[in-house]
Amino acid sequence: MLSIVEPTSGFSALARQYKRLARELTHHLPITGDTLHLNPTRNAFAHGMDPTRTYLVKGGMLSMAHQKKRLLTWDEGDLIFPDASGEGIRYQADAAVLLLGFDTEALHAAVLADATRARQWTQLMLTQQALWVRLLAAQTGEMPLTNSQFAYYQPGEEIIRQGENADYVFSLFEGQAEVLVDDVSVGDVGEGELLGALAVLTRSARTATVRAKSRCAVIKVPEHQFEQLIRANPSMIHGLLTDMARQITRLNAQVVALANGGAAPAGIHTPPSS
């Protein structure tokens, strides 16, 4: 396993350990794999690789990328596990590659049936996790430290109250909440949405109340540190602009419907700019 970026401390030693454990685990397995010969390709899934199978690299090198960004290169002796989501990962071969593919469920059953292999499997998973952490550290630039807090709200509790000062931005990562203006429900917000960002950026009071409809879990980021985060993370700015554009489009549809004397279109979602 080779890192595309400058590896962090300990990466090389962990990569060697990963290869050793993979070799020990697959030695004399009670199941057989299928040989796959890959010619040079920019998308190995289109030329024989199955994203649900586990592969042992027998020869050559195979690059792994996500969102068009190369992450690392697997080489001889590496064991490649399927991606949990089954999408988004791309493998590229610049030269011929020889793979040995296993049915993942059959491999798992064979491993757990033997105490020694079960221990090797656990060590392999721990080593892979350690590799991912170091790879992530190498890929990610230095980010400002924040005093973010986790908070939980039960149904009926207010996350944001209309008229209050905007001291925090909230990231809703679990649950669903209702948006109210002057105690009138105007929409819902769900998992993955930022609450209160616009009020923080414009330094204005909260323009709406956000109340939990189910158990909600949020991350609270202080105002000044949120500004540091968006300066250090341009993708966050892109996400905010996308949300704002989507909200403006929905509000325009609502205004047109009301101006024509009809009801607001179903599914209108008022922005949580509070």
TrEMBL record:
Pfam families: cNMP_binding
Residue ranges of every copy of the Cyclic nucleotide-binding domain listed in the record: 153-247
Record-linked SMART domains: cNMP
PROSITE patterns in UniProt: CNMP_BINDING_3
Signal peptide segment: none
InterPro entries: cNMP-bd_dom, cNMP-bd_dom_sf, Env_Response_Regulators, RmlC-like_jellyroll
Protein name: Cyclic nucleotide-binding domain-containing protein
Organism from which the protein derives: Alcanivorax quisquiliarum
